[in-house]
TrEMBL record:
Membrane-spanning parts: 122-140, 326-347, 374-396, 1057-1076, 1088-1109, 1139-1160, 1166-1185, 1197-1219, 1241-1260
Record-given protein name: Phospholipid-transporting ATPase
Named cofactor requirement(s): Mg(2+)
Main location: membrane
Domain called P-type ATPase C-terminal: residue spans: 1025-1267
Keywords: ATP-binding, Magnesium, Membrane, Metal-binding, Nucleotide-binding, Translocase, Transmembrane, Transmembrane helix
Length: 1335
């Protein structure tokens, strides 16, 4: 390294911040506000701390034991207890929780009523029995679950760990439950961390500890944590007795990725630390032999335990509807009880004197007539209690478990590549999958593969393409195959004299083949990942590129300069990306181009304008710049020879070691592989240094001074490095072009006019290339740099250290220091990376649209990139009229929305809206066929800034009204908060069912906001999956999940709910009709046990089988005809109409089932149970046959369950009537069923009555099947046809449903937008619009 005037304290390591602070204090520089706190005051020997706002940790050693003992009493121990109950509290607490359910309270109220002698209907024990059984079963289930938690807690609490013992001055093996805040913990490789621990020592020479955080966030790639500054250079084992510092940090919270605090040294100075030094409970130590730390949070105060929330509960739409209908049933029950009470009073009033059954009280007084009517009202509630279908809730839970079982075992939803099937994380909203109206999707990783391929780059205004990059993915061994050829940019070609010569520079054997993988290992560092999914295969072509990167300059100077800039860019990519895995204070990398000779002249941009670009051949061009090239005369054939000689010779015989890189995102892996493909290879990476091998074989080691990590606010990351040859301190920044371009130095500040002109031209050409990349769907990144002086960096580093040591406003201070460094940048270039569409995405989107589902894409990508992907996946069509709104002015935005609405309404003409939105008339979802044939579809593209304007300007309603006319909506540059706001806006204002799908942590808020959240287990960890209700591995699985399983789950459950209402109302009405013939006395003609068995055994299983196995339409037909999904969106199976029809039908059937036996046995001398048994048998047969008519699928299971339920009734009745001699005195059901079976009249009425009861329903279903226009009915008919005829019918159906082509005149119609001041608004008509028109 060259000599320079740099103070000895300014070391090039991460730990240099401590020395920088000492230098700052020694030289008397002013202190920051955080440094002027009492903690730094020398007047106080003992610091007083605010324990309400911060946590203070003293070490448990001999020196600080007294302080430790005093302060630790305030903090939680490490013993955890996740159980809800203890042995003494189990019974009362469990009963208390169960009676929080209103259904149990309702039953308890009935039991209490029945215990009152004046209102007793059933035997008291009989009334208690159902409630006692339900409470007991739930209590057993809760007890078993809690006992499992207790055993797991005991296992965890008794796990072993090495804890430093002060008295013995050594580490002693103890249990986890013995760990206290302030203890020193020694952990070995593959051990689980017992508490939240601040890392003080690592056996790794670089002070790094590798963690696997799968238990917390599901991510299996290793994370790196580093020791606190000042502790990384320990030569020997850590000595706890020598640690005399005090730790001050934030109070316990549930932010897994946020932690701040500082360490107070004995001299009252501070060293700051953050989440990069915190080992979280539940993580596993990997690839690190020994790690030592001090406990910060223990037990239930650890971040993992604070995030340990139970499963989220969502109420489905059917459940919400069902609760409303239960209130109607309560009203019906109240009305029937009122009739009974009034009827009883009227009937008693017909007696001139008190009847013999009216018993007076002890004083001989009779109850008043009104009071007797009130008692009868309560008695009727007990009698007719089954009208409220309480058992329906239990049945629904069982049915959903069955549906989820079949859902998880569907092989079509299994992905072989990832070995993952669908995960159902929410058990109570499966039916909502069949009612979705809006889908909100992320783009990257959801619609695309999130497997990045480096395609193009622009360097200092010159564009370089890599057309044959896809060839490396064509081998059968590669899973992420890429068969598409890059066909754009045909204008970038060689001159004629080059096109006739081989474009290859160097041989194919120069670069070692390496498979691109996301998870990786770098053997040179000695940290080979033990469970890496990546591996190297020598049979594969070179990674990242098979094309060369060559320029055809007019002079040797331009050629050398171009290659130098290429080399600079690739080193920048390598240094920036490999440093991002460290935290905000970890070092990073440097400029190679600057390092290879300060005497190299700067290229002339005027000469570069004439450079043509080639992308042919199959070599990996190192592109190294030598200062001797300025003197080389390159002409004609001599150009080939000299270029080949200079580029290839240094690489001959180079033995490149087998490397596999680990990166935090696929973008970073693609950039590093790009540099490797051009022989700029990363061979070592430590927190303090990065070693890169050049094409010549030379290795350069860069000292990393600081890394400013990426965050979603800054949208960039930076690395500060010292150049190994020039000694300059250089800041490299990589980030979104929308941000980097605003941070560039003003060209007007250039030293002369020529330089200003060159800078402006470079920026303009780079922006042009960025737009081209975006229009081709590439992900773009800009790279810039800045050289700073030693003094400037020293001052900045001191400010940075102060910000890191601050406990208050730490994030704001760190942001301020980053912004202070990241400005006045010099643009170097930009990259374009391709992220291909997932397989089956266009077909899935087309099917969802046919199903009537509105699809919105919410992405943070550039507008041009997102629009291109939208066209590729058929979200937008070439014939669509696309409106693009980009403005930050509220008035402008409002005028644009008004004009767009007027124009769209002219397109569609007058329509009759089918719903209203707060007074706004919204168009019908399916316009008339005539309008569809005459008008193109409408699409809307809007950016994040415009969304902010809409939300802040109260323009949401106009925006929503416009979106109702749009076929698709595309929101670009949207933040995670904006995504969730959009979902909530649509869900709440339009009252529609919404689904959000995403794969990254930035989609979590959107997933939580929707009615159903779906996570994709992709390349960005599992945070979206862990926050979702369902998890799938591919976007294409959404098609079958919604169109098939969603339809089935909704159809089954909706019809089962309606059936339950029918069944209970029908059966209860039999008891109600009998009251008219028993003086409204509350007596029954059916035995109490028979009534209990009726719902418990005889009619419980058929609805469950129906709800789990019934298929109204086959999966093949549902997939072939997506429009069948609309039946669920319109709630055709269960709505107010179907509910009241089933209630009326139940009343009719109960009348038939009661009065036919009544008229048959009228004026006979049979007893009450002989009259009630035929009614009970008839009602059972009618209810089961009604169920059979509802079943659309018949299997052996269906038949056995129905027949078995009916036979079980007779078996139980015969046995019960045979043994029940004196069970229900004075009237007993002894031998009643046996007598009935010997009576021909019984068989006759059991045949005639069900037929009469079900005849109207059968007649209605027959008419509906013959003349009904429902799509479901038509599809059911098609399903019954033979395979060949069914396919023809489906094809004919699709041809009829396909909209007519748009007339030519309609396609060419362009509606100009009136001039609106300062607006960025485009309405692109179909023929004048294409993806490349977006600018």
């Amino acid at each position: 390294m060259s000599d320079h005037s740099f103070l000895p304290e300014m070391a090039l390591s991460v730990d240099s911040s401590w020395h920088r602070w000492q230098w700052r204090v020694r030289d008397g520089l002013p202190q920051s506000p955080s440094e002027a706190t009492p903690l730094l005051s020398e007047e106080k020997k003992r610091q007083s701390y605010n324990l309400i706002q911060q946590r203070v940790v003293f070490p448990n050693n001999s020196t600080c034991h007294r302080d430790w003992a005093e302060i630790t009493r305030r903090y939680s121990g490490n013993r955890i207890c996740t159980t809800k109950y203890t042995f003494l509290t189990f019974l009362p607490q469990n009963l208390f929780e169960q009676f929080h359910r209103w259904a149990n309270l309702y039953f308890l109220f009935l039991v209490i009523l029945n215990w009152m002698p004046s209102m007793e209907v059933f035997h008291r024990e009989i009334t208690m029995l159902p409630l006692a059984i339900v409470l007991f079963l739930i209590m057993v289930k809760d007890g078993m679950e809690d006992f499992k938690r207790y055993r797991l807690d005991r296992k965890i609490n008794c796990s072993n760990i090495w804890i430093y013992e002060r008295k013995q001055q050594s580490y002693v093996k103890k249990c986890w439950k013995d760990v206290r805040v302030g203890d020193f913990i020694q952990m070995q490789c593959n051990e689980i961390i017992p508490a939240d621990i601040l890392l003080l020592f690592s056996s790794d020479p670089n002070g790094i500890c590798h963690l696997e955080t799968a238990n917390l966030d599901g991510e299996t790639n290793l994370k790196q944590r580093r020791v606190v500054k000042g502790f990384s250079q320990q030569e020997v084992q850590f000595e706890p007795e020598c640690f005399c510092n005090t730790i001050v940090c934030e109070k316990p919270n549930n932010h897994l990725n946020k932690f701040k605090g500082y360490m107070e040294h004995p001299d009252q100075s501070r060293t700051g630390f953050g989440s990069e030094s915190l080992l979280l409970r539940g993580c596993t130590i990997r690839n690190t032999k020994v790690a030592v730390g001090i406990v910060i949070y223990a037990g239930h105060e650890t971040k993992a335990m604070l995030n340990n929330n139970g499963p989220r509960y969502k109420r489905s739409k059917i459940e919400r509807r069902m609760n409303t209908d239960i209130f109607f049933c309560i009203g019906l029950l109240f009305l029937m009880c009122l009739v009974g009470a009034v009827g009883h009073s009227l009937w008693n009033g017909t007696f001139e004197e008190h009847p013999p059954f009216d018993v007076p009280d002890a004083k001989g007084n009779f109850l008043p007539l009104a009071l007797r009517g009130f008692y009868m009202f309560l008695t009727m509630i007990i009698l007719l209690q089954v009208l409220i279908p309480i058992s329906l809730y239990i049945s629904i839970e069982l049915v959903k478990l069955g549906q989820i079982f079949f859902l998880q075992n569907d092989l079509d939803l299994y992905d072989e590549e990832t070995d993952l099937s669908i995960q159902c994380r929410a058990l109570n909203i499966t039916e909502d999958l069949g009612q979705i109206q809006y889908v909100f999707s992320d783009k990257t990783g959801t619609l695309t593969e999130n497997k990045m391929v480096f395609r193009r780059c622009t360097i200092m205004g010159s564009e370089y393409s890599h057309q044959e990059n896809a060839k490396r993915l064509e081998t059968p061994k590669e899973l992420d195959s890429d068969s598409e050829e890059w066909t754009q940019y045909k204008c970038l070609s060689f001159p004629a004299r080059w096109s006739q010569r081989p474009a290859t520079v160097g041989g194919q054997g120069r670069a070692q083949p390496l498979r691109r993988c996301h998870s990786a290992r770098v053997p040179i560092q000695g940290h080979s990942r033990q469970r890496s999914v990546g591996h190297c295969e020598s049979s594969q072509p070179p990674v990242a590129f098979s094309s060369s990167l060559v320029t055809m300059p007019p002079s040797a100077k331009a050629l050398g300069t171009s290659l130098e800039k290429i080399q600079q860019l690739f080193h920048r990519l390598k240094l920036l990306n490999l440093s991002q895995s460290f935290s905000s204070t970890v070092p990073s990398d440097t400029d190679l181009g600057e390092s290879l000779g300060a005497n190299i002249p700067t290229p002339d941009s005027e000469e570069r304008d004439d450079v043509s670009v080639c992308s042919g051949g199959n070599s990996t061009d190192g592109g190294y710049r030598s200062s001797t090239w300025d003197q080389v005369d390159i002409q004609g054939s001599g150009l080939d020879a000299s270029l080949e000689e200079v580029l290839e010779a240094p690489a001959l015989g180079l033995a490149s070691p087998e490397l596999c890189y680990e990166a935090e995102s696929p973008d970073e892996a693609a950039l590093v592989h790009a540099a490797h493909a051009y022989s700029f290879t990363l061979v070592s990476r430590t927190p303090e240094q990065v070693t890169v091998r050049l094409p010549q074989g030379t290795c350069l080691t860069f000292d990393v001074l600081c890394t400013l990590g990426f965050d979603s606010v800054r949208k960039r990351m930076s690395v500060v490095v010292r150049h190994p040859l020039t000694g300059e301190i250089i800041v490299y920044t990589k980030g979104a072009d929308s941000v980097i371009m605003d941070l560039l130095e003003d060209p007007a500040c250039a030293t002369d006019s020529d330089m200003e002109k060159k800078v402006r031209k470079i920026q303009a050409r780079t922006q042009k290339h960025l737009d081209l990349y975006a229009r081709d769907g590439l992900r773009t990144l800009c790279i810039a740099k800045k050289v700073i002086s030693e003094d400037d960096f020293r001052r900045w580093a001191s400010f940075r250290c102060e910000a890191e040591a601050s406990l208050d406003n730490r994030d704001e201070l760190l942001m301020e220091t980053a912004q202070h460094l990241e400005n006045q940048l010099t643009l170097l270039g930009a990259t374009g990376i391709e992220d291909q569409l997932q397989e089956g995405v266009p077909d899935t989107i087309a099917a969802l649209r046919e199903a009537g589902i509105q699809l919105w894409v919410l992405t943070g990508d550039k507008q041009e990139t997102a629009v291109n992907i939208a066209y590729s996946c058929r979200l937008l069509d070439q014939t669509d009229t696309v409106y693009s709104i980009n403005t930050e002015n509220q008035e402008t935005c409002e005028s644009i929305l008004n004009y767009a609405l007027e124009e769209v309404k002219q397109f569609h003409g007058p329509q009759k809206p089918n719903r209203k939105l707060f007074g706004l008339c919204l168009p019908s979802e399916t316009p008339p066929p005539t309008s569809r044939a005459a008008v193109p579809e409408v699409g809307l593209v809007i950016n994040g800034k415009t969304l902010n304007t809409i939300f802040q300007g109260k323009l949401e309603m106009k925006f929503l009204e416009l979106t109702q006319y749009c076929r698709s909506v595309l929101c670009c540059r949207s933040t995670p908060l904006q995504k969730s706001m959009i979902v909530k806006l649509v869900r709440d204002k339009l009252s529609v069912m919404t689904l959000s799908i995403g794969d990254g942590a930035n989609d979590v808020s959107m997933i939580h906001a929707a009615d159903i959240g779906i996570g994709i287990s992709g390349q960005e960890g599992l945070q979206a999956v862990m926050s979702s209700d369902f998890a799938i591995s591919r976007f294409r699985h959404l098609k079958k999940l919604l169109l098939v399983h969603g339809h089935w789950c909704y159809s089954r459950l909706a019809r089962m709910v309606v059936y339950y209402f029918y069944k209970n109302v029908c059966y209860v009405n039999l008891l109600f009709w009998y009251q008219f013939f028993c003086g409204f006395s509350g007596s029954t003609m059916i035995d109490y046990w028979q009534m209990i068995f009726f719902n418990l055994f005889f009619t419980s299983l058929p609805p469950l089988i129906f709800g789990v196995l019934d298929k109204d339409i086959s999966a093949e037909t549902l997939l072939a005809l997506p429009e069948l999904y609309k039946s669920g969106q319109n709630s055709e199976c269960y709505n107010s109409k179907t509910f009241w029809i089933c209630i009326v039908d139940a009343f009719y059937q109960s009348l038939v089932c009661f009065f036919i036996p009544y008229l048959t046995y009228k004026d006979s001398d049979i007893d009450v149970f002989t009259f009630g048994t035929p009614i009970n048998t008839i009602s059972l047969a009618t209810i089961l046959l009604h169920q059979a008519m509802e079943m659309k699928t018949w299997t052996i299971i269906h038949g056995l369950v129905l027949a078995g339920s009916f036979l079980m009734y007779f078996v139980v009745s015969l046995v019960y009537n045979a043994i029940c001699i004196n069970c229900n005195s004075p009237t007993n059901p002894y031998w009643v069923m046996e007598s009935q079976l010997s009576d021909p009249t019984f068989y006759l009425i059991c045949f005639v009555t069900p037929v009469t009861a079900l005849l109207p329903r059968y007649f209605f279903l027959s008419l509906q099947g013959t003349y009904g226009k429902s799509l479901i009915l038509k599809a059911q008919k098609i399903d019954k046809l033979p395979m060949d005829k069914r396919d023809l019918e489906i094809q004919s159906w699709r041809n009829r449903q396909r909209p007519a082509p748009i007339p030519e005149e309609a396609q060419h119609t362009h509606h100009p937008v009136p001039p609106v001041p300062e607006q960025d608004f485009r309405a692109n008509s179909p023929k004048s619009s294409s993806p490349s028109k977006y600018k």
